[in-house]
Amino acid sequence: MRYVRDLNEQPATPSGDGAVIRDVLVVDDSRLQRKILSSSLKRWGFSVREAEAGQEALLLCETHPPDLVLSDWMMPGMSGPDFCRAFRAMDRERYGYFILLTSKSEKYEIAHGLDAGADDFLTKPVNAPELRARIAAGERILRMERELGEKNRLIKSTLDELQALYDLLDNDLIEAKKLQQSLVSDRYRDFGYADVSLMLQSSGHVGGDLVGMFQVSDLRIGLYGIDVSGHGISSALMTARLAGYLSAAAPDQNVALRKTPGSRYEMRPPAETVAILNKLILDEMETELYFTLLVADVHLDSGRVVMAQAGHPCPALQRADGSVEMVGTGGLPVGLIEGASYEQFEVALRPGDRLLIQSDGIVECSDTNGRLLGEEGLARILRDLRQTRGPACLESLIWKLNTFTSDRDFDDDVSAVLLEFKPSPCIG
How far is CA 256 from CA 233, 294, 301, in A? Predict the structure, then answer.
């Protein structure tokens, strides 16, 4: 029986510059059959190497990885399927197409060859047009595989570049978060008659919430809570600008303060402060951002707290007996309407009472079913924490919010100012 039939009768078919099959390895223990196949493949434009056994072929595959392997099934030592299995186990940059040459036609044997990793089969004696057709089919498959590989490499290269940019941006945002947190460096102060605690937690690296306090005199302090619309860098930049307008370190730049004839400072009415900020935002900042705000003027000796609310959530007033009520008048956010007017309201705190000025990130926390915490949920938490004071109270509030959300990340920034009047006032 002839091993190759009419191979020499076929015209040459060079592989061409665009071919993906250039190097072919012929593996057969018959030298004659190797030569017959090799001579025809060379005339067709392929670079051909030969091996008479599987082990020898594996060594050639390591030094010169072939694009295509034509291997006899029956060989001494290592059979064609065994060689194919070892070939597939090799570490290769590109896929190699593998054709088994066999006289076997039983389905079981074909399945055995496929399991070993063969891509195609040719029945002996080899028909030249069929061999060339199988090589062309293999070339189409390899071309698609290599085009896909190039696309994957391009995608990986792009993703690597994006990852590098993300890492750079992430590092910048980490530093930005440190700077933003430094805007609230003084998280707790004892003012004698009352204690003030601050809490600021962004949902991302940086956020649009800001809380703060500033001292006007020995018996008067200012408090504020801000929530800028949106999230991220633009909102964080706005909070940094607003921190300068309500600075505790530079009273001459604080719009909530004004100088008296004796070169001292006094607190402006909170509604006037909000109106000034509204004008500043609309006149000086070219931005579509706006913010909610609550400004409080606290009289430490009397417990009188005068507030102006500009779209910020209603503060929670907790009496010494643990009861909680929401106070406030609402009002328009800052930076939406030119010439907007704002109203004031006031509450009287007695020893043991406390006031929580919070952002909407607290009352709008949601559980896994989408149910919001709401004002009643906040009141319930405050009642549970009525014996917990100062920064520990705010930390416990965060812990309870995490429990409510099942430890999911908060969807919004969370911030609060806690003003607590002491049961036994004393200025130290």
Answer: 26, 12, 20
> Residue 326, Cβ neighbours under 10 Å: how many?
15
As a whole number, mean pLDDT of residues 121-148 equals: 88
Closest CA to 296 of 279, 312, 278, 308: 308
pLDDT one-digit tens code per residue, 377-426: 999 999 999 999 999 999 999 999 999 998 888 888 899 999 999 975 44
Residue of 364, 239, 223, 226 whose CA lies nearest to 297: 223
H helices of 189-229, in order, are none
Q: At what angle do helices 54-63 and 80-88 cross, to 10 degrees?
A: 30
Q: How many CA atoms lie within 13 A of 170 on its CB side?
A: 6
How is residue 206 annotated by DSSP?
Answer: S
Q: Are 310 and 329 in contact (CB under 8 A)?
A: no
Closest CA to 239 of 279, 277, 191, 193: 277
Average pLDDT, the chain: 87
pLDDT above 90 covers a percentage of the chain that reads: 58
Rounded to whole angstroms, how far apart are CA atoms 302 and 305? 9
Give the DSSP letter string of 304-348: EEEEEEEBPPPPEEE-TTS-EEE-----PPBTSSTT----EEEEE
In 3D space, the residue among 373, 384, 195, 207 whose CA is nearest the CA of residue 289 turns out to be 207
Q: What is the DSSP-derived secondary structure letter of residue 351?
A: T
β-strands 316-318, 354-358: how paired? antiparallel
Please tell me the predicted confidence (pLDDT) of residue 172: 60
Alpha-carbon distances of 4 from 1, 11, 38, 137, 293, rounded to whole Å: 9, 15, 11, 20, 89
Cβ neighbour number for residue 111 with a 10 Å cutoff: 10
DSSP labels, 247-269? -SS-GGG-TTEEE-TTS-EEEPP
Partners of 87 in the beta sheet? none
